[in-house]
Design brief:
The chain is an alpha/beta fold and about 290 residues long. The protein has one domain: TIM Barrel. The chain is built from twelve helices and ten strands. Strand 6, helix 5 and strand 7 form a beta-alpha-beta unit. Helix 2 runs parallel beside helix 3, helix 5 packs across helix 6 and helix 9 runs parallel beside helix 10. The chain is globular and about 50 Å long. The chain starts with a helix and ends in an 8-residue tail after the last helix. Bound molecules: phosphoenolpyruvate and manganese (II) ion. Phosphoenolpyruvate binds next to loops.
């Protein structure tokens, strides 16, 4: 890496590539994030019902996803919107893991909830609104669980890397960076997908990078194209919102793919993955629905 990048990100030295550390591979159960496999995390924005979660888990698994996402604690823009099922949601996620074999990523919003969320989740998600909540970052880091660190919607790449550095400083090397779109003057899309940040993060940092085209786009029609662009920008995986009936979703329905659209999107990634010499690891071993559980 050229000296200028080192200088520019001088206060997050340990997240930058060095000759002895070119790529961190985060181990999650039997999975490696940042390794040879392109890892898709998919599922509903919010955990709503047992049926919604199980149906989604089975479907996304059959399409090649390796990790189930779903919010039990929801940071909503409106204080009057559904805030999540909390502990009950975490229990539903754990049951879905048991049934589907998928690992679980879910958001933790408060420092006090870290031990409880860490008991159920394989990966702790730090949401965009909490990227600079340093006491939460420290508590999450100390749980020992891998951390999916979402870029703050008003955060620069340097801000994101500083938060990642703080997690490393608290003894947790398993940080996964996530670009989910930033707030700009453009309002046609929900956020502006910063594809340049993905390319940059892959260039300067050894940490795995996941792209979230759903929260960037805000409109489901745009999600597949942004997912394909993410593959070509060398992201290590995707975070995608999927719902059995997006029009009835309790949160983020406009940007959620239905089952058929998710299936189609995953298939459309193949030629782009092939250009990178990658495949979707789960496609070959995905079990038919009857055999699951
Ligand atoms: C989410 O993943 O559902 C979420 C709330 O994401 P973000 O923090 O990026 O808005
Ligand atoms: Mn969401």
């Amino acid at each position: 890496m050229r000296g200028s990048w080192q200088e520019r990100f001088a206060d997050s030295p340990d997240v930058l590539k060095s000759p002895s550390r070119l790529q961190t591979v985060v181990q999650v159960r039997d999975l490696e994030i940042g390794g040879a496999e392109f890892v898709t995390m998919a599922g509903p924005c919010s955990v709503e019902t047992e049926f919604q979660l199980m149906a989604t888990a089975h479907h996304v698994r059959r399409c090649g996803a390796r990790i189930l996402r779903g919010g039990a604690f929801k940071p909503r823009s409106s204080p009057y919107a559904f805030q999540g099922h909390g502990l009950e949601g975490l229990k539903m996620l754990a049951r879905a893991r048991e049934e589907s074999g998928l690992a679980i990523v879910t958001e933790v919003m408060s420092e006090c909830d870290v031990p409880m969320v860490a008991e159920y989740a394989d990966i702790l998600q730090i949401g965009t609104r909490n990227m600079e909540n340093y006491s939460l970052l420290e508590a999450a880091a100390r749980s020992g669980r891998p951390i999916l660190l979402k870029r703050g919607m008003m955060a620069t790449v340097a801000d994101l890397l500083r938060s990642a550095q703080l997690i490393l400083d608290n003894g947790n090397p398993n940080v996964i960076l996530c670009e989910r779109g930033i707030r700009t003057f453009e309002t046609a899309t929900r956020n502006t997908f910063d594809i340049g940040a993905i390319a940059l993060l892959k260039y300067i940092s050894h940490l795995p990078v996941i792209a979230d085209p759903s929260h960037a786009a805000g409109h489901r029609e745009l999600v597949p194209a942004l997912a394909r662009i993410s593959v070509t920008a060398e992201a290590d995986g995707l975070l995608v919102e999927v719902h059995p009936n997006p029009d009835k979703a309790w949160s983020d329905g406009d940007q959620s793919l239905d089952f058929a659209d998710f299936d189609q999107m995953m298939g459309s990634l193949d030629p782009y993955l092939a250009l990178r010499g990658l495949v979707l690891g789960a496609t070959a071993d995905a079990r038919p629905m009857e055999a699951v559980g």
